[in-house]
Every structure is written in structure tokens, then in C-alpha cells.
Amino acid sequence: MAPARRRKRREDISVSIGPFRHFADYAACVEIQREVWRFDDIDIVPAPLLIAMEHAGGANLGAFSALGEMIGFVCSMPGYAGGELHQHSHMLAVRTAYRNFEVGFKLKLAQRKEALRRKIGLITWTFDPMQPLNAYFNLGKLGAWTRVYEEDFYGETTSTLHHGVPTDRFLVRWELSGRRVAERLAQGQPRHDLRKELKKFPVITKLEILSPGIAGCSAARLGLSEPQLLCEIPYNLPEIKKRNVGVALEWQGKLRQVFRSYFKKGYVATDFWVAEDEGHLRSFYFLEKNPR
Fold first, then answer.
1. Is the domain covering 12-187 a CATH 3.90.226.10 domain?
2. Residues of CATH 3.40.630.30 domain(s) within the chain?
3. Which of 91, 154, 187, 248 makes an SS bond possible with 167, Cβ 3.0 to 4.6 Å?
């Protein structure tokens, strides 16, 4: 009888992070884009453009396995907005087989280190507000924050992941030398006791169960004025998007309404919480009014 295969742990994966080494790495980056986002060629960032972006001041960093195979990458370009020089991180992707091994986190740490080496203190990027795991990674784990909600930012793409839903995005700021970023990177996100938190902070949105595994949203509470608020979204919202695009579009409409309203009033999304409640996971955006 063959021995059972032992599942690899995170510490079993040997990963090195560094600049792209030769043209084959740019070609591998193109293939990873196809695998992760399932784009047609028209939406792929081609190798010559990646090379040009790097030559113009961007930074392309790869994650490489012990065998030297590129298993992920992060790509940024120079940016200038509001009188501020920064790097704009356009893409981060990890091959499916290497998910959940902290590869993306290691890439962001290397990107931060490279930006600081260049004396750049800010990195920006976009992410989908309807992706709880991305929200947890960006706001909760890395310590980025946002006060900008862009509707249909990329327009229609060929990716099957979008499932007919407009490409709304948050534009986040990662202040590389900030105290909160340093604390999150060193200590991780604190645990949250939902029973206490839900008594302490008003909740803008309330889930309504429509069918097994499908939650809609009640009317959003747009008149709240407390200094700190919570906005709940279903933890399985990406699965809802696959199963019922109509409910997903309703959620997107609610989120547009919520963040347009509260960002205009001076609130900032500074964190994202995931906590267990009666055997299932719940997820919340944490908003603060004029936190800085």
C-alpha cells in the first residue's frame, strides 16, 4: 500500500523573491496572467510593455520556486498624483497550485522594500470591493486604506471572473513607513469578538437570506454619523456572483451607494474584519470618520 501523501505546509514551500532575470520570466508572467484572470490576449499585459514599464521606473518582481520556476509576480509602474510621487501596483498574481502559501504576502513585502530603497513612501493599487479575501489581505493584513470608490474602472474585460458585473474598484493607499502598516506587518490583524463589536459599532448593511448560500442586502443605513461604522458583506460574495448575477449586481449597487455616501462625508475604509459567528464566517468593512 502506497504511503499517503503528506500535505505541504507553508514552511515547506521554498520561495525566493527577486527581479525578473531574463526574457523567459516576462513570458512566464504572461502565462500566469492567463491562468489567474482567464483573459483573452487582448487584455493581457504583453512582455514588451512590462519591459518598457520597468525601464521607465516601474518594478517587476517575481516569486520563484526552489527549481527556479516563476510561480507569481507583482508589477508596478511610476505614478504621480496630487503632487505626490508613488508606485502604482497594477498586477499581483500567484499560480493556483501555490495559493495559501503566503506567496502574495512575500511579494508585497519585497515590493515595499524596493520602493523604500528608491525613497518612495507610497504604493497605490485597485481591488474589487466584492472580494472579501482581497479586502482582508489589502486592508486587514497589509494595513492599506481607501477613500476612493471607482465605478466600472476597467470597463468590460474578457475575464470570466467578472461574470457580467461592472469592474468597480477601490483605489487604496499603502503608506509604507506609517505606524499602522508597521504594526500590521509585525503583529498581524487582531482577533475580533463579534458579539462585543456589533454592540459597539453601528452596522450600515444587514444581510437577508434569500435561499441557501445566497444573501441579499437590506436597505443601507446612509444617515449614520458615529465616528466608526461597520459595513457587512457576505463572506461568500464571489460564490454568489457565480450562482446569481442578479443578486451580485444588487450588492454592487448597495456598495456604490454606501461608499459614495460615506466617503463624501469624510469616512475612510481602514480595515476589513473576518470573524466566526455561530459556525460560519462573517465579514465587515470598518469605516472611520476623519481618522487622520
1. no
2. 12-187
3. 154
